[in-house]
Write a structure and sequence with these properties.
By secondary structure, the chain is α+β, with helices and mostly antiparallel strands. It has a single domain, classed as GMP Synthetase, Chain A, domain 3 (2-Layer Sandwich). The chain has three helices and eight strands. Strands 1-2-7-8 form a four-stranded mixed beta sheet, with helices on one face. A two-stranded antiparallel ribbon has the order 3-4. It has a two-stranded antiparallel sheet with strand order 5-6. A hairpin with an 8-residue loop joins strand 1 and strand 2.
């Protein structure tokens, strides 16, 4: 999708994006309890996803990756940005999330 078309897409709030992410995780992994928490302050827009059993980090990452709008480049010590397009009722929207940080059983996944 070109940047011009991408910028015309409606942008979801971070709160709405995190709710959709939690809904997608629950649908993909029935019976698994997920905690999806937004960061506050300067980290607002980043989300922490935690769970204790069931899927691996890679399996959860496959569901959460479309919601991630930012990354970090350690070589240049800078934030990177990417298109994060999610669908709601078949309509594309821009995710309002930055980093999506995964934690399984208290460890970074």
């Amino acid at each position: 999708m070109s940047n011009e078309l991408h910028n015309e897409l409606p942008r979801l709030s971070a709160a709405d994006s995190s709710k959709l992410l939690k809904r997608a995780l629950r649908a993909a992994f029935k019976g698994i309890k997920f905690s999806v928490r937004l960061s506050t302050g300067t980290g607002y827009g980043n989300v922490h996803v935690s769970w204790t059993e069931g899927p691996t980090g890679d399996e959860v990452r496959a569901i959460s990756e479309p919601f991630r709008g930012e990354g970090f480049d350690g070589m240049t010590d800078s934030t990177t940005y990417r298109d994060a397009i999610v669908e709601i009722d078949g309509q594309p929207h821009r995710s309002g999330l930055g980093l999506v940080l995964l934690h399984r059983n208290g460890y970074v996944a």
